[in-house]
Design brief:
This protein is α+β, with helices and mostly antiparallel strands. Helix content is 38%, strand content 11%.
């Protein structure tokens, strides 16, 4: 899974690409990281590029701390990967991390 931007990043940077996930007034109750954290303890992997203008890395790092707190009793189920000098894409290196996560949790044929 790749990341969706945070509500705070959408507002701060006025990124229209993020408005597809923006629900007016929902951010008064929390940000997207709070919503994602609700699935803890289920396996989750997220991928980011440091140059992604839709998900600024400063917001990503804050969001990861929120999600990590939700996974504190099942840390092995939450992973994320940040790739330097990558933008809004799923690179080959990111994809390798995704596949590794799938292989860990999906049964073989």
């Amino acid at each position: 899974m790749t990341w969706t931007t945070t509500y705070s990043a959408i507002c701060e940077n006025r990124r229209q690409a993020g408005f597809g996930i923006f629900i007016p007034s929902l951010n008064q109750y929390g940000d997207t990281s709070d919503i994602v954290a609700l699935i803890a303890s289920r396996p989750l992997h997220l991928s980011f590029g440091t140059e992604d203008k839709h998900s600024p890395i400063s917001h990503v790092r804050i969001a990861m701390r929120t999600i990590e707190k939700a996974y504190k009793n099942c840390q092995q189920n939450f992973t994320y990967f940040i790739e330097e000098k990558q933008g809004h894409l799923l690179s080959e290196q990111m994809w390798e991390h995704v596949i590794a996560k799938f292989l860990k949790y999906l049964p073989p044929n």
